[in-house]
Amino acid sequence: MPINPVEVFYCWWCLTEPKVLLEVNVGVDLSEVLNVVRRHSDVEGVYVVNSLSDLSEVGLKALKDFLNGLKEGSIALIPLSRDSLKLFKDFTSDLINKVKVVPVVKDLSVVEELKGVYSDVCFNTANPYLNVSELIKSGVTCLIQPHAVLRSRTVKEAVAKGVKVVAVGVNSPEVYLKVESMNVYAVTTEKPNIKREAKLG
């Protein structure tokens, strides 16, 4: 699947303030989740926790319908493993182009095969001690980290070098404000209105 030229207008890394992504599990009622996303203008996209290879045909169709129902410019972070590479490419090629799909990997050896196919690739790890220069060299453009390690040298270096950082587990206004000060993405599992709560104090 070639890179969609329209993606340049989405500019999901051009942050003026942190954006909120809602964590999504395909095992729940996705029609209700879609309604939640539509009701909360602060939610800029979703972080799918399921690997496509773990989903049935029914689950894959439900996820595809859900993603196609998101508003234009929405971000969709989706896990990818080496054994699901072809499935991932086939699945995302059928999506409506208005959704920005970003593969999430835990194996850096997969990144090379994604170059030229996806304009962004996220590396998901709980390890706060990483060589950011090596990540960039490998083709990683996005780093997913637990919010608890946002003050680590790795995260600060990643932000300074233009790597997008996504903080997971952001479920309280206090944590959101910490994320806001770092100017990174916030993934919440429980509070799609967390930005508003934080602003209201």
How would you characterize this protein structure?
The chain has a single domain (20-200), classed as TIM Barrel, CATH 3.20.20.70. It has helices at 7-10, 30-39, 57-68, 85-93, 132-138, 153-160, 173-182, 194-200; strands spanning 20-24, 43-48, 75-79, 100-105, 122-124, 142-146, 164-168, 185-188. It is an alpha/beta fold and 201 residues long.
Structure class: alpha/beta
Low-confidence stretches: 1-10
CATH class: Alpha Beta
Order of strands, widest sheet: 1-2-3-4-5-6-7-8
- What is the percent of helical residues? 25-40%
**Helical stretch tally:** 8
Number of domains: 1
Organism: Zestosphaera tikiterensis
GO molecular function: phosphoric diester hydrolase activity
Protein name: GP-PDE domain-containing protein
Gist?
This protein has a single domain, classed as Alpha-Beta Barrel (TIM Barrel), CATH 3.20.20.70. The protein has 201 residues and is an alpha/beta fold. 33% of the residues lie in helices and 19% in strands.
